[in-house]
Amino acid sequence: MSESNDITGIETPDDETIVIKLTQRAGDFIFMLSLPTSAPAPVEVLDYLPDSPDYRTNFIASGPYTPAAYTPDSSLQLVRNPAWSAETDPLRKAYVDEIQLTFGLPVDAIMQQLQSGDGDMTYDVTIPPAVLQLLKAQGDEKLVTVSSGNTNFIFINTVSENNNGALQDIRVRRALNYAVDKAAVVQQQGGPEVAQPIHGIFGVGVLGYHEFNLYPSEGDKGNIEKAKALLAEAGYPDGITLKMPYRNKGIEPTIAQTIQASMAAAGITLELTPVAPADYYSKFMTNPVNTKEGTQDIAPVGWTPDWAGGAARSVFQPQFTFNGTHQTYNYTDYNNEKANELADQAINAPTAEEVGNLWGQVDELVMADAPVVPLIANLIVLYHGAAVQNFQPYSIGVRGDWTNVWLQR
Q1: In DSSP terms, which residues pair with 102 in a beta bridge?
Q2: Do the Cβ atoms of 206 and 356 come closer than 8 Å?
Q3: For the whole model, what pTM was predicted?
Q4: Which domains are present in the chain?
Q5: pLDDT in tens, 184-231
């Protein structure tokens, strides 16, 4: 297998340097390089088919820990990597000698282990709202909240002819934005510890997120009178009936009913349709025929940025731009040329301040068109055992950073 490539934009002048030449300026490129997929790999990985059993068995780690034993869907043991040197890695101290991960445990069992001292940290575990409230009431200082940039919002179908094309009227779309009780959605989600109302397309933690609200209401509970007035102005004084599917999973049916109740107060009747979780995006939402034929008028959806920090383009471009080729998650081929121009400036801006300011303008331009109804920004709540010291969130994985903790029992 060849060790060379013909990527002219990448050079390796010596064994410790990679030079990447871009075809255009990209102020967010450094954030993209934080992704694991951009990490340099040794030439020896070419001996194995990517992600094959041989590749996994002979996995070559570049960090302070390397796999020692792995049982699929059961456990993973990480031990010190003899090839790693602390002098070359100022970010990870690697205080502990070994990390033992156990998969598949129920959340209640995990929390019991952490509180009894039989476990130390969680990974990819959502703390149930009831447990979270109890820990908060107890003043447990081992709770840590971190933003993932993830948001939930309502997509608005502007291409169907349902209700004589009502959702093509910006007044109707703005009425939807005024109608929703976001505070109630926050409570159903588990309270302000795990969610907060949001008013734009970017989530908390994304460079470009800022506090603004083009459709304000007291306490984010919805402005029913404003919603009714806009509907009447658009020719729907007696209200309107819309079709809304939802994923039949977890608390999402309850969230759908909460949205339905707040819309009803403004004269908007929602006909709810449950969809199997496995089919919701893959077969239902991403099928452009469903959108065009009006199988749904509005639909709850979500988005998580592809990387941490300067990730606004990974939110804006796939969902809110159209260049003539349909994008999977821009369900209605929404496009705003002025927003596109500002986005190009943001991508090329040299400072974080300028980047944030420009993406903030993009956010407000998009929301002035009201192609969506932002609902909540989701926050991740992390928890750890009493023995864990120096606990810090790891922004890319939005989990605890086990490479920088130590234990004190």
Answers
A1: 75
A2: no
A3: 0.86
A4: 1-26+41-59 (no CATH), 61-125+384-409 (3.40.190.10), 147-380 (3.10.105.10)
A5: 999 998 888 889 999 999 999 899 999 999 999 999 999 999 999 999
